[in-house]
Amino acid sequence: MRILITNDDGINAPGLAVLSEIAAEIAGPSGEVWTVAPAFEQSGVGHCISYSHPTMVARLDNRRYATEGSPADCVLAAVADVMADALPDLVLSGVNRGNNSGENAMYSGTIGGAMEAALQGLPAIALSQYLGPRTAGLDDPFEASRRHGVAIIRELLDHADWTQNDDYCLFYNVNFPALPAAEVLGTRVAAQGRRKDSRFSVQPYSAPNGRRFMWAKGGDQQAIANEGSDVAVNMAGYISVTPMRADLTCHDSLSGLAGKLDRDLVDSRGTG
Predict the structure, then answer these.
(1) The pLDDT of residue 270
(2) Could you list the residue range(s) of the whole structural domain that residue 34 is in?
(3) Residue 139 is labelled as binding a ligand
(4) Is residue 7 marked as binding?
């Protein structure tokens, strides 16, 4: 198996090293693991691509490349250039330092990389490690993902829907709970949730030269979310698996809104 790995924490991030180990075990002794990852941290960039300026791609080692762009740029670089002669069988994005459950998914560059792979017709999985008080004292805060990552990826490869059709292709978002590996309770398939009363915000400040700047701030990651959601099962000690697709349509609202707004405009200009 040929596997492409990427992330949004940067090519030297410890989570990418964890993912490299996981990917090597999945690929097997006859397989290949290729790395195309951002040269610098790209957290929070979502699914953005460097559309208005060129992006440098540098070969660092055999099957190891860094780009100046986003995770989605990295996948594009792999598909159109680095691995163009033989595309990957699987794309893995992560392991992110911090969770991408709930509303975090909408901002995540880790998920953006997996989404771009799905748009390119490639099977893709995003993986993230929830952090919290129980991981703060661990020698390896990625212990849960390191220990359980291979098994969950293999289960997804064996049992998940990887159908390729004219619709947007599925990809999968996996979040490991903020626990030592031995205390993880299991796996739950869960919908994306939202933390109640927890939102992203900014902290403004003024530089010595008087210019105004701001730091983006995440919401409370320990806040409760709707029952059964990815956030809720992570907080309860389970690995969450969420099927996703690059389709922002609110399908529940389509028919009702169409009943109110659909109409034909009458041509009153006449024929004479």
Answers:
(1) 57
(2) 2-194+226-261
(3) no
(4) no
